[in-house]
Amino acid sequence: MHDLLPAGGAIRKLWITEAGKYRDHLLRLDRDSRHSRFGGAVADDFIRGYVDTMFGLKAIVHGFFVDGVLRGAAELRPLGPGFAREAEAALSIETPWQSHGVGSVLLDRTLLTARNRGVRKLHMACLANNRRMQDLARKFSADLSFDFGSVAGELAAPGPTPLSMLREFLSDSHGFATAILDTQAKLLKPA
Ligand SMILES: CC(C)(COP(=O)(O)OP(=O)(O)OC[C@H]1O[C@@H](n2cnc3c(N)ncnc32)[C@H](O)[C@@H]1OP(=O)(O)O)[C@@H](O)C(=O)NCCC(=O)NCCS
């Protein structure tokens, strides 16, 4: 899939040292988005505790950055020890960046990562009435079949291939370069 992102936006995996950026992004979600993301109303302290725990669970988070600020994220978390056959995915985009294709690119990257880790069943942490997420998931029906009754999706083409590994490697190399540029831009900015 060709990455069509809003101007100035870039997607890359988060590093373990970037838990604070993920926490701040989740705290910035407005009330409705927060409700959809967590399946109910949750307090700020819940989000802080969630991020602390989640980063210890071998989660892989792809982030959507605009000017170095994390504005969207897709989390892939194994269900079980090590990198298991089943995983859970959850997406969050801050409201001004919703409906601009960011969720589509993030889900595409997440599916690629899941596939390369041998994940066969992907659960979406999604409420049954979340039409937007369901519409988004339907765009990937060739790769993933969703059953929103049980909120589980089967990866239709499980298992890595040399091409899928190469795609992830190329995305990561690009993401690494973007992270370095972000850091350099911050260092060069006048205080
Ligand atoms: C659900 C969410 C992840 C979707 O991300 P997004 O970046 O807004 O989605 P995209 O712009 O990639 O759109 C994906 C599809 O959703 C549908 N969609 C997008 N905006 C929509 C809107 N305003 N109304 C209805 N459907 C819409 C379309 O089918 C779209 O596909 P198309 O652009 O090819 O027509 C995002 O809106 C979000 O973070 N919502 C709050 C948290 C949440 O619900 N998380 C899901 C829990 S896992």
Structural class of the secondary structure composition? alpha+beta
* Strand numbers in spatial order across the main sheet: 1-2-3-4-5-7-6
Helix content: 40-55%
Total strands: the figure is 7
Instruction: For the record, give the distance between the C-alpha atoms at the N and C termini, rounded to a whole number.
Output: 39 Å
Number of helices: 6
Poorly predicted spans:
none
Plain-language structure description:
- This protein has 191 residues and is an alpha+beta fold.
- Helices cover 41% and strands 22% of the residues.
- The chain contains 6 helices and 7 strands.
- The chain has a 7-stranded mixed β-sheet, sandwiched between helices.
- A hairpin with a 2-residue loop joins strand 2 and strand 3.
- Helix 1 (19-28) runs antiparallel to helix 3 and helix 4 (102-116) crosses helix 6 (162-188).
- The chain is globular.
- The termini are far apart.
- Bound molecules: coenzyme A (COA).
Secondary structure topology:
Blueprint: E1 9-13, H1 19-28, H2 31-38, H3 44-54, E2 60-66, E3 69-78, E4 86-93, H4 102-116, E5 121-124, H5 131-138, E6 144-147, E7 152-155, H6 162-188
Parallel strand pairs: 4-5
Antiparallel strand pairs: 1-2, 2-3, 3-4, 5-7, 6-7
Helix pairs in contact: 1-3, 4-6
Bound molecules: coenzyme A.
Coenzyme A binds at residues 33, 36-37, 90-93, 98-104, 124-126, 130, 132-133, 135-136, 139.
